[in-house]
Predict the 3D structure of the following.
Amino acid sequence: MEQYFLLNSRRRAVIALIHSVFFLTVAAFGVFGAARTPLSTHSVRGVVLYGIYGIVTTLLLWLLAKALCLRERLYFGLCAGSAGLSIVRGLLGESALHPFQWLKIVLLLSAGVVAVSIHRVHDPAAPRPDDAPEAELAEAD
């Protein structure tokens, strides 16, 4: 079975899936929002927003570096890419980079699919390859 750093249980995989769906919903609403000018660091709102995006992106990149298996790396990489696109869109203005919002949605949809696959790995009803020899031994007796 694959070794996981953070998403090592069904409960954590469900939480990852909920986060993906929540931020996917936020990104989907952003597609239909009005175009905005680039944010400025001269306003309190701009500094706070860039700070939050920076912290989230840094944390996700750190989790990506700590991830042990390919699925977990893929999940954190997709989420970090989505958060990083938010920084780029804020700096350059949303009207000029509207395709980035669609790319963000694709990244979050993909992260949701990966979270579902991680959840399925932790499914107790799923047969595990390690259990197969024991079942064969029990049938032979």
About this structure: Helices lie at 10-31, 44-66, 70-92, 98-121, 132-140. The longest helix spans residues 98-121. The chain has five helices and no strands. The radius of gyration is 19 Å.
